[in-house]
Design goal:
Structural class: alpha/beta
CATH class of the largest domain: Alpha Beta
Helix content: 25-40%
Strand order of the largest sheet: 2-1-3-4-5-6-9-10
Shape: globular
CATH topology of the largest domain: Rossmann fold
Bound molecules: succinic acid
Order of helices and strands: EHHEHEHHEHEEEEEEHEHEHEEH
Number of domains: 2
CATH superfamily of the largest domain: L-asparaginase, N-terminal domain
Number of strands: 14
Largest sheet: 8 strands, mixed
Distance between the termini: 26 Å
Radius of gyration: 20 Å
Length: 331
């Protein structure tokens, strides 16, 4: 039994991001460096915490300290291992992760995909972030952290979720939609899971029962030999051509041959004829091609006899993660 209602610890893993960012001037919301302040420091003196936590203890661990645009597979692996380790402990009720907003949705989806279902079924992994640095006058990190802790304290919360600006999203649906607003994330057609209001989580839909966990064996493959398959993304656009795909098929010194290619197609998966022909050549050369859409909402709906497999409603960046894991999975 890995869960007890009385579990007394919430583990908070720091990875950097704007939430840990610092700038020379408190009034500067843009000219800052992400990933500067330790997770223990971010949680120190967080207002209202003793009352909210009661006897529950926050335990911190610094897994990385970076701007999430520079997120690397090696850190993902380390993060997945640490999350898995902590979720297995009987006295841990939840794991929280602080992360930069720029690639948060990829990390959330990755964890959702690789954490075994038996670990996701009864405890939450809550990712949170900020759009203003910790040093800013308008810093949103403290409120997001407080809300994420409230989510972690709510019984029945499970799986990988994302909390930003009082809104709770599932790892599957969350997407960064805005470059500057504090409420930068949305869940597209699926909508948010719920809202944190005055420290209480109000769910607006049933908890997602579908847990991925299909790729846990992928993690074992990576841990064994350390290499991730090379999967690239190309986009369809006016004046599309074969140039990028043909170039990607060429050997590139220092890089493994490309094994997968996600195409961010236009609309309902449409492709410029020159790009489509190049993707066919890639497919014939053994590259696995996955078709997603560059539209922010909706999914590619199959006409029945499509040459390239669809990304099952995933955005291009999540489709890339899914394809890498599929290529890695042993089962
Ligand atoms: C980052 O993604 O690490 C920087 C940007 C942000 O957190 O908003």
């Amino acid at each position: 039994m890995i869960f007890e209602e009385s579990a007394q610890k919430i583990v908070v893993l720091g990875t950097g991001g704007t939430i840990a960012g610092s700038s020379a001037r408190v009034e500067d919301p843009i000219g800052y460096t992400a990933g500067q302040i330790d997770i223990a420091e971010l949680l120190r003196n967080l207002p209202g915490m003793p009352e909210r936590l009661g006897s529950v203890q926050l335990v911190t661990e610094q897994v990385a300290q970076l701007d999430s645009k520079d997120m690397e597979f090696a850190i993902w692996l380390q993060l997945a291992e640490r999350v898995q380790y902590h979720l297995k402990q009987v006295d841990v009720r939840a794991v929280l992760i602080t992360h930069g907003t720029d690639t948060l949705e990829e990390t959330a989806y990755f964890l959702h995909a690789v954490l075994p279902p038996e670990l996701q079924c009864c405890k939450p992994v809550v990712l949170t972030c900020a759009m203003r640095p910790a040093s800013s006058l308008e810093s949103d990190g403290p409120q997001n952290l407080r809300d994420a802790i409230s989510v972690a304290l709510t019984s029945g919360v499970l799986g990988v979720v994302v909390l930003c600006a009082g809104t709770l999203h599932s790892a599957l649906d969350v997407q960064k939609m805005h470059t500057y607003r504090l409420d930068a994330f949305a869940s597209g057609d699926a909508g948010a899971l719920g809202y944190v209001e005055n420290g209480l989580l109000r769910l607006v839909k049933n908890w997602p029962l579908e847990q991925a966990g299909y790729a846990s064996s992928a993690i074992e493959s990576i841990a064994d030999d350390g290499s991730w398959p090379r999967v690239e993304i190309v986009m369809n656009h006016v004046g599309g051509s074969a140039a990028v795909v043909d170039a990607l098929l060429q050997p590139l010194p220092g890089y493994a041959p490309m094994q997968g290619l996600v195409v961010a197609a236009t609309g309902n998966g449409s492709l410029h004829m020159a790009l489509e022909a190049a993707l066919s050549r890639a497919s014939q050369a053994g590259v696995k091609v996955l078709r997603s859409s560059r539209c922010a909402l909706g999914r590619v709906i199959s006409g029945g006899n499509d040459e390239f497999e669809h990304a099952n409603g995933l955005t291009p960046v999540k489709a890339r993660v899914a394809l890498m894991l599929k290529l890695l999975a042993r089962d």
